[in-house]
Design goal:
heterodimer; A: alpha+beta; Immunoglobulin-like; MetI-like fold; 3-stranded antiparallel beta sheet; 67% helix; B: 250 residues; 9 helices; 10 strands; 35% helix; globular
Chain lengths: 612, 250
């Protein structure tokens, strides 16, 4: 090792560094208002103690209570003539309280002793001003606690501004628990809400996992890097998306309209749900032969394409019928009003959801299909046509694709900001998009493959990172506004956050798989999807499970506070009780959160061990 | 007949792995590719089925150009070229049978294979291949539960599932002990002699080359420095291939 020479410059550097560090920390202390004196002040310590003690007594169990009240007379101040006040002898067969001395100056201290109470009971000990012993106003914070013989003695400081010539009282209240304990109202409320919380987390995690799974593949560099396509293919597949989405939506919407009358009839709906899969099995068996050694003829391929399209439409018809069937059955079960009628609600809701998302599925499927069809057509063109012709085709297609993309972005901007100026959101984007497309087409050589995969990768990554940096709590605020206060908003917020964060975690796992199997599967002639299913997925299952568990853990914890902003779950109750200074109830909820989180932790670690 | 014409490959970082490589492989030949580590053997084999995209040059197979094939044509070409790897490249968490069936992925309809549906004939074929390499009893086990030699047999069975006309073997025995090495090489020899499958096999040990290869190609820094019969490699040729300081050990 080379020994560095000590130079004055080095020492100055070090000194400067230390100075900078000190200034930084000093400034940090200053702006974060660190005040240790506050910690030591007696008043603060007292309130801390009080809060901690209340928190240590969560409001879970309650008893029926019998209350014994004794009002002991006291004179404050002592009579002016110096005589000792006239105190009646207490009835010693009942619980009674003796105050000594019987009169004091205002602000004086008295010894309060009780006799004949039940053993080990407690309650407040209060000064009751005015001469009426039934006065509901009472002062002080003292408490009594009896010993085994039912006796207590407490030194009590009386207020110094309540002097009166008449008799006043000290009220001792002893409360005794009677009978068996039962769960308090707080406990019941907490139970309801913690269940809601756990299920919020479950649903959010499920939705998030399902959607994050496909996203993770297009956000993985190692899978996207080999994805390259000629410009014509890229431009055509970009153009294919909007066309396909429109076509798919229209088609499925039409199928839905045709199927709607059947979906309202239980017999028809059930019948089609049974018949559709049968038809699909036979149709697809024919249209998608298991092995094909020769390249099929054009006519056969067209016929197969027709059958596949027909099958897809039948499939969507079947989905609508299934949705109808589920809704109908669900409604029946709800009407039966049995113990299991909540299953009916689930079935009904799932039916409704299916009915709503089927057209969207159709739109997506249409978009994907038309886009890949167009893309393949572009690929063919790039392979077969002459370079010069290809160049002009590229220019036209790239301009069209660029214009389309930019106009769609412009429309989004218009929708968000309502500018109402078409030259900014329509004409300019169209022109600049077309220009950009043309420039790319002019620069790129007509038959070269461009790294389309990496573009998709970067776009996906950027969106994921941007969304991930927004906390779920903030997302919840947006969703509370859009769908109203309640657990649904919480599920949407948590679900979205789960998608983006799992998408990133998953994709990093995909990036870290072994290349060997990938290479081997590719070498067998497998296409891209087959490679993913046979080489990628088996490798990523264990980390995916463990990340999903981890996320489920986080979601349970997050869902406990998402109620702070109205997102449902236990958080709302907790916040309310903290604001009402009802610390015993708040303590119950904190305890519930702690128990649930700890249990989740344990369960998820056990599951992880089992599966991984 | 496989023809390699003026094949060159330059990696993104500027490393030139292959320089103007040309040779022919007649059908049914067992061709050994030798050379130091980093001499371009793996790159050469991977260029043939285009796992690595060559920078320039041409590869013709039965007159059809592999280098100019479209993605769809490539799928049809690749499925007739089996590949065996040094590190076996099995999917560890999948069953042995699934690993072998994966060899049919280029033939079966993608839609069905995504649902893990294979034709019955393929299942029987897979069992037959496992039988042939002598590990039929392991078909239900996870691939990573097998020993190295067994894993390589699964790799061979997978390649055989492709009904290959060529098998590219990238140092198939480099991670195995000498006894296992011979048993794996015998399987390859058997496939070559009995089924008439052309074998391109990169090897490290000259005794294996002498024992199994019909012909040898030697690469040094991406160039073909020797092409001929194994028996023609004398001490002088050996030094040309492996460098001045090299000494023969086998």
């Amino acid at each position: 090792m080379k020994k560095t020479k000590a130079s004055p410059w080095k020492s100055i550097q070090l000194g400067l560094a230390i100075l900078v560090v000190m200034v930084t920390y000093a400034y940090g202390f200053e702006i974060t208002n660190i005040d240790l004196g506050e910690l030591q002040s007696e008043r603060r310590q007292e309130s801390l103690t009080r809060v901690l003690r209340t928190l240590a007594h969560p409001d879970i169990l309650e008893y029926e209570q019998s209350t014994v009240i004794f009002n002991a007379p006291i004179y404050m101040p002592c009579p002016a003539d110096g005589s000792s006040p006239d105190i009646p002898e207490p009835d010693t067969t009942q619980p009674y309280v003796v105050v000594t001395p019987a009169c004091v100056e205002p602000g004086g201290t008295v010894l309060v002793e009780g006799f004949g109470f039940a053993p080990f009971v407690g309650g407040p000990l209060r000064f009751v001003p005015g001469s009426d012993p039934t006065n509901s106003v009472s002062l002080g914070r003292a408490t009594l606690e009896t010993d085994a013989s039912g006796h207590f003695s407490v030194e009590m400081v009386l207020p110094d501004d309540r002097d009166s010539p008449d008799v006043q009282f000290i009220r001792a209240t002893a409360r005794e628990n009677v009978g068996a304990p039962y769960f308090s109202r707080t406990a019941h409320e907490t139970w309801d809400k913690i269940i809601e919380t756990v299920f919020m987390a479950l649903l959010a995690t499920t939705v998030g996992t399902i959607l994050a799974f496909p996203i993770s593949f297009i956000a993985a560099r190692n899978l996207m890097k080999p994805v390259r396509a000629p410009l014509a293919s890229i431009a055509l597949s970009l153009l294919g998306w909007p066309v396909g989405i429109w076509l798919g939506y229209q088609l499925v919407h039409w199928v839905g309209l045709q199927g709607a009358p059947f979906a309202r009839n239980l017999v028809f709906a059930a019948g089609s749900v049974i018949l559709v899969p049968v038809f699909l099995t036979f149709a697809l068996r024919w249209a998608l032969p298991q092995v094909e050694l020769q390249v099929p003829s054009r006519e056969l391929r067209l016929a197969r394409l027709g059958v596949v399209i027909l099958s897809l439409m039948v499939l969507f018809f079947g989905l609508f019928e299934l949705a109808g069937l589920m809704s109908l059955l669900g409604a029946r079960i709800i009407d039966s009003e049995r113990v299991y009628s909540f299953m009916g609600t689930l079935l009904y809701q799932c039916g409704e959801i299916l009915r709503l998302i089927t057209p969207l599925l159709g739109a997506l499927a249409g978009g994907g299909w038309v886009s890949s069809l167009f893309g393949r057509f572009g690929q063919r063109m790039a392979e077969r046509l002459a370079a010069g012709l290809m160049k002009s085709i590229n220019i036209v297609l790239a301009a069209a694709a660029g214009a389309t993309v930019f106009v769609l972005i412009g429309l989004l901007v218009e929708w968000l900001y309502q500018l109402g100026r078409p030259e900014l959101t329509l004409y300019w984007p169209a022109a600049s998009g077309a220009g950009l497309g043309m420039i790319i087409a002019l620069i790129a050589r007509p038959k070269d493959s461009l790294p389309s995969g990496m573009v998709i990768y970067y776009v996906t990554r950027t969106i994921l990172n941007a969304l991930r940096s927004v906390e779920a709590l903030v997302m919840a605020i947006v969703f509370v506004i859009s769908v109203g206060i309640g657990p649904f908003a919480g599920i949407l917020a948590l679900g979205l956050h789960t998608i983006v964060s799992l998408g990133k975690l998953y994709s990093e796992q995909v990036e870290s798989i072994m290349d060997g199997p990938l290479e081997a599967i590719q070498a067998t002639g497998a296409n891209r999807l087959q490679t993913i299913v046979y080489a990628v997925i088996p490798q990523i299952i264990p980390p995916f499970i463990s990340y999903t568990m981890y996320r489920w853990d986080i979601n349970v914890r997050m869902s406990t506070i998402i109620g702070f902003v109205g997102g449902g779950g236990i958080g709302f109750l907790l916040l309310q009780n903290i604001n009402l200074l009802n610390y015993r109830a708040a303590s119950t909820q904190m305890l519930a959160i702690a128990v649930v989180v700890a249990m989740m932790d344990y369960v998820s670690s056990v599951l992880r061990e089992r599966t991984v | 007949m496989l023809q390699i014409k003026n094949l060159s490959k330059t990696y993104d970082g500027g490393v030139q792995a292959l320089k103007d490589v040309s040779f022919d492989v007649p059908k049914g030949e067992f061709l050994a590719v030798i050379g130091l580590s980093g001499s371009g053997k793996s790159t050469l084999l991977r260029c043939i089925n285009r796992l690595i995209e060559p920078t320039s040059g041409q590869i013709l197979w039965n007159g059809e150009s592999i280098t100019a094939a479209s993605p769809e044509e490539m799928r049809r070409i690749r499925r007739r070229i089996g590949m065996v790897f040094q590190h076996f490249n099995l999917v560890h968490r999948s069953k042995v049978l699934t690993n072998v069936l994966a060899g049919r992925l280029g033939y079966v309809n993608p839609a069905w294979s995504l649902l893990n549906r294979f034709p019955r004939a393929d299942m029987e074929k897979a069992m037959a291949q496992l039988e042939r390499v002598g590990i039929a009893d392991k078909s239900g086990q996870r691939a990573d539960a097998l020993s190295g030699g067994q894993q390589q047999r699964v790799g061979i069975a997978r390649a055989l599932m492709q009904d290959p006309e060529i098998i590219l073997a990238d140092e198939p025995v480099a991670s195995l002990d000498p006894v296992l090495a011979h048993s794996i090489m015998k399987h390859l020899e058997d496939i070559n002699k009995q089924d008439g499958v052309t074998v391109l096999c990169s090897l490290h040990f000259l005794d294996l080359v002498h024992r199994y290869a019909d012909r040898v190609i030697a690469l040094n820094e991406g160039m073909v420095v020797f092409e001929g019969l194994p028996s023609e490699i004398d001490d002088q040729k050996f030094k040309d291939i492996y460098g001045r300081e090299a000494e023969r050990v086998g």
